[in-house]
Design goal:
Blueprint: H1 3-18, E1 27-38, E2 44-56, E3 61-74, E4 77-92, E5 97-108, E6 113-129, E7 133-148, E8 153-168, E9 174-184, E10 191-202, E11 207-218, E12 229-240
Antiparallel strand pairs: 1-2, 1-12, 2-3, 3-4, 4-5, 5-6, 6-7, 7-8, 8-9, 9-10, 10-11, 11-12
Amino acid sequence: MSVRILIMALCFCIVLANATYGEEKRWNEEAELSFVDTGGNTELVSLSGKNLLSYAFTEKMLGSWKLGALYGETDNVKTAERYFTDLRLDYSFSGKVYFFGSGGWLREKFSGIESRYYLGPGVGYKLINGPKHFLDTEGGFNFVSEDYTNDTEEDFLEGRLYGLYQYAFTKKNKFSQSLEFLYNFDDSDSYRIKSETAFITALSGYLSLKMSYEVNYDNKPVPAILKKTDTILSVTLVVNF
């Protein structure tokens, strides 16, 4: 997969959403994009993008498709590469309880993952639901198949715990903090922790500026020589449709 494919996929999502404005209440799209290109003493190219497309099938059922990528070069040498796509279907059982099923794919060679496929169910509970404070919690299981860059592979059952807190300063300006814990039931030393801290500030009716800091911790990376912690500090432009 290349950066061009990512850009084409993002454009496809935007065109698809624009073509369905007649069903404006059912569709929602949020695209994030950041690009850096420097020359001179240091040649740096960095591109990251995410797109979230959601569709309300009914008042209780919501489908979403998320895809994204991170690509970086320093002095014409590739230094970062990450691609992913996720599909999810949520069903609202009551005002606070919801069930979901999700599946996806990830490639992150600089973290040792040639490919990761997962599929599994889960349940969520809205502990706090506004008007300014929001707190969602989720728990579930994933059936995972991973191929690593050292030509090894593994299939296992994974447990997942997730929490998302949001504070709305205004309708379009907010702070969010998410925390995710992934546990390999076949190996007690193999677990991952993911965190994202973000501020979103509205620039106009459709544009927002997002500042975020992500931490990805892998207690048992494969191959073992890799560092356990990866961090990403980014400022991105967010477009809402």
